[in-house]
């Protein structure tokens, strides 16, 4: 990291750089499922993102947590610019 730091933009150096060492091979694989099929894979992936990933990162020795085949929830919002301008 010390070799790359001089080449980084000043904003990056000012904010700070975090480095995590990891191997290319997974050490542990955890599978989530809904026993009664009440939740789909999108729900389970979102649950893991919100409730489990950060806790796993806090475990000493964990370098990376990755969800395979998961996508995040998204929201699309349409606004009416004229009504938005009038609300100010």
Descriptive labels:
mainly alpha, 88 residues
Secondary structure category: mainly alpha
Taken from the alpha-carbon principal axes, the silhouette is flat
- Helix amount: 25-40%
Could you tell me the mean pLDDT? 82
- What series of H and E elements makes up the topology? HHHH
β-strand number:
0
Task: Tell me what the structure shows.
The chain is mainly alpha-helical. It is built from 4 helices and no strands. The mean pLDDT is 82.
Brief overview, please?
This protein is mainly alpha-helical. It is 32% helix and 0% strand.
Write the layout of secondary structure elements.
Layout: H1 10-15, H2 41-51, H3 53-57, H4 81-86
């Amino acid at each position: 990291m010390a070799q790359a730091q001089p080449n980084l933009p000043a904003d990056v150096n000012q904010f700070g750089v975090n480095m995590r060492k990891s191997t290319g091979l997974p050490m542990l694989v955890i599978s989530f499922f809904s026993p009664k099929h009440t939740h789909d894979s999108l729900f389970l992936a979102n649950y893991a993102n919100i409730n489990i990933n950060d806790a796993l990162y806090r475990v000493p020795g964990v370098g990376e947590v990755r969800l395979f085949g998961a996508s995040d929830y998204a929201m699309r919002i349409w606004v009416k610019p004229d009504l938005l301008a009038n609300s100010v």
